[in-house]
């Protein structure tokens, strides 16, 4: 969580840093702050709440300082108050630090520093860092004076970079930091340990940030630091070192996507725009992974995920690790891998798995699913899986696969194989288009494996491929025709307190996802439930005040869902059906119908999720809430 930025060059830093923080606000927005250096002094300005509060404060200060660092916070240690906002300073006010992550041993360090006379003014873990830096500088100075007194040879001064590298070696946890010091007005030192940090290269100016959207309006030439690396940014260039002090040779790369993607393009919210981008991103997945020439009867697989054959050749079991919406996509992945490719598949919350891992079996494939590629729980669980595999054969160690939307992210560096979900950057905190493209990745993986293992007939494969190709047009049609109706319907539920979402089979995870979307952006309590389980307890919750959304797609569980919906109706619940407009049965059962296109049941999650995203969006927007930045959340959850 949290976003950090830095700038060094020839322009006034404040405006560049603020614009960068705006693009990172999705990572946290409890408070924000900037520190710049001019005339040998650090100026630090911080404000509680959203970035506009900081902007207002900065308007009173006209600073031309060409170097600075900034931060937007998602509170972990300490309340979201101004005194806990970053940057944090040492007692002399000459060292300023911003951090994304958690320093786990901060209590011990704080105690040690307090004993040496350091005074702390915040509740944060981060504040130990500027104090530790100051302490190292003080020690160097003292040693130098002692050596002088002894008239021994003058010891070499430690550079700013060397001092920061001593300090990062004392920090435990996952963190990315940027540091400035008034005594080194031409340097920013940055370091990365399991939290993202990317450096941007301009002409005579250099940037750093937690994520690329903060950089793309200035440069698309970027370098991602790896764990255990530090860099020194000066107006002359960038030098990268390991935490052990070794100079590293690294080459920047050019980002492939356009800055336009991080603009709202006429939509009021990013989430709304991203819902509308779904036909295009599904198309992008089809283009990336489906052979456009493939015809039924062709012996080769229609799918090319660019994965080596041996990755899955004799896989007997799959474990999927993920969190939140990615976990919901993984549940659908499980359905597909089991039903199409006949491979037993377990889906685990990454945050739980680490503390109760399943026994490792031979021929197991582990898949990590994370749109951001930075979710700490998922990375930690995958890291543990990597360690458990150490000592086994190369083939077994390589049996790990990441599914991510960010090919420059930590998971992409960590995993031997990656499927890129091609959704383009997603800014709204609530995942929408990235969810749909995760589903596409699972369709392709399951179908490819089913083809390899001959667990699918040629006719069925052709049917599904045809259905997949039709999806973008079906979603487009739905958005064009139904959005206004969903919006109007949403007006009836702005004061509702509880919602139930029901689904069965492949659409049960969509009920979970519909409930999660509503909870996170509208703050309405919602539960997703397997429709058939209602009668085993939760049906007691139902009365006329609790609307029930039932996903009823023609196929194996259609009649069953309709019966479950009837059971809810008999308890006075208001029923909303997510179902194709077919006949009288639906019209009689449901009070409202969100008519989705009639597609193959296996592909239906891609169309059933869209009205639920829109329903959540319009209810939240109608309630006047901050849809893109809901309270207490952040897009990239980089703490465990
Ligand atoms: C919900 C949402 C979160 C994320 C979860 C995992 O809309 O966005 O539940 O899905 O935090 O994030 P990733 O996929 O980045 O690992």
Strand order in the sheet with the most strands: 3-2-4-1-10-9-11-15
Instruction: Give the overall average pLDDT.
Output: 92
Secondary-structure-based class equals alpha/beta
Tally of contiguous helical segments: 18
Tally the beta strands: 25
Give your account of this protein's structure.
- This protein has 640 residues and is α/β, with parallel strands linked by helices.
- The protein is built from 18 helices and 25 strands.
- Helix 7 runs parallel beside helix 13, helix 8 packs parallel to helix 13 and helix 14 (458-490) runs parallel beside helix 18.
- The protein is globular and about 95 Å long.
- The model has no long low-confidence stretch (mean pLDDT 92).
- It binds fructose -6-phosphate.
- Fructose -6-phosphate binds next to helix 8 and helix 15.
């Amino acid at each position: 969580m949290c976003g950090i930025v830095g700038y060094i060059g020839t322009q006034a830093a404040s405006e560049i840093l603020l614009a960068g923080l705006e693009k990172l606000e999705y990572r946290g927005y409890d408070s924000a702050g900037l520190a710049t250096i001019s005339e040998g002094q650090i100026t630090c300005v911080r404000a509680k709440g959203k970035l506009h509060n900081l902007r207002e404060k900065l308007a009173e200060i006209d600073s031309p300082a060409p170097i600075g660092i900034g931060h937007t916070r998602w509170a972990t240690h300490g309340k979201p108050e101004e005194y806990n906002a970053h940057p944090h300073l040492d007692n002399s006010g000459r060292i300023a630090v911003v951090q994304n992550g958690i320093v786990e041993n901060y209590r011990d360090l704080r105690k040690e520093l307090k004993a040496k006379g350091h005074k702390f003014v915040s509740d944060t873990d981060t504040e130990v860092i500027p104090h530790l830096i100051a302490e190292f500088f003080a020690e160097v100075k003292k040693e130098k004076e002692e050596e002088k007194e002894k008239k021994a040879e003058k010891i070499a001064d430690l550079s700013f970079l060397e001092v920061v590298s001593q300090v990062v070696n004392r920090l435990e946890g996952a963190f990315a930091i940027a540091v400035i010091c008034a005594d080194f007005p031409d340097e920013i030192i940055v370091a990365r340990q399991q939290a993202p940090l990317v450096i941007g290269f301009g002409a005579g100016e250099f940037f750093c940030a937690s994520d690329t959207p903060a950089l793309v309006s200035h440069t698309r030439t970027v370098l991602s630091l790896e764990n255990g690396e530090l860099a020194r940014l000066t107006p002359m260039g960038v030098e990268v070192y390991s935490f052990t002090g070794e100079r590293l040779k690294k080459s920047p790369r050019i980002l492939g996507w356009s800055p336009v993607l991080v603009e709202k393009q006429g939509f009021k919210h990013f989430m709304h725009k991203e819902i509308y981008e779904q036909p295009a991103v599904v198309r992008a997945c089809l283009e990336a992974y489906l052979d456009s020439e493939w015809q039924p009867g062709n012996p080769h697989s229609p799918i090319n995920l660019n994965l080596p054959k041996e990755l899955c050749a004799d896989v007997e079991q799959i474990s999927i690790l993920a969190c939140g919406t990615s976990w919901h996509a993984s549940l659908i992945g499980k359905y597909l891998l089991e039903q199409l490719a006949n491979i037993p598949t377990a889906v685990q919350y990454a945050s739980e798995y680490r503390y109760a891992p399943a026994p490792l079996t031979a021929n197991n494939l582990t898949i990590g699913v994370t749109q951001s590629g930075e979710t700490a729980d998922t990375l930690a669980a995958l890291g543990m899986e990597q360690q458990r595999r150490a000592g086994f054969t190369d083939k077994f160690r390589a049996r790990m696969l990441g599914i991510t939307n960010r090919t420059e992210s930590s998971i992409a560096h960590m995993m031997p194989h990656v499927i890129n979900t091609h959704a383009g950057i997603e800014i709204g905190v609530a995942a929408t288009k990235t969810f749909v493209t995760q589903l596409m990745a699972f369709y392709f993986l399951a179908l490819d494996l089913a083809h390899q293992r001959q667990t699918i007939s040629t006719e069925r494969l052709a049917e599904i491929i045809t259905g997949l190709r039709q999806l973008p047009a079906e979603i487009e049609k739905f958005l064009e025709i139904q959005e206004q109706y969903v919006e109007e319907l949403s007006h009836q539920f702005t004061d509702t307190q509880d919602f139930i979402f029901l689904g069965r089979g492949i659409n049960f995870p969509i009920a979970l996802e519909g409930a999660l979307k509503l909870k996170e952006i509208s703050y309405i309590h919602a539960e997703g439930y397997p429709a058939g389980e209602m009668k085993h307890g939760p049906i007691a919750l139902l009365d006329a005040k609790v609307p029930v959304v039932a996903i009823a797609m023609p196929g194996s569980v259609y009649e069953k869902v309709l019966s479950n919906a009837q059971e809810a109706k008999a308890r006075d619940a208001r029923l909303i059906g997510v179902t194709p407009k077919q006949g009288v049965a639906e019209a009689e059962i449901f009070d409202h119908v969100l008519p989705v296109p009639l597609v193959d049941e296996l592909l239906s999650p891609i169309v059933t999720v869209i009205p639920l995203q829109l329903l959540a969006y319009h209810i939240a927007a109608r309630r006047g809430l901050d849809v893109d930045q809901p309270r207490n959340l952040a897009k990239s959850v980089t703490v465990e």
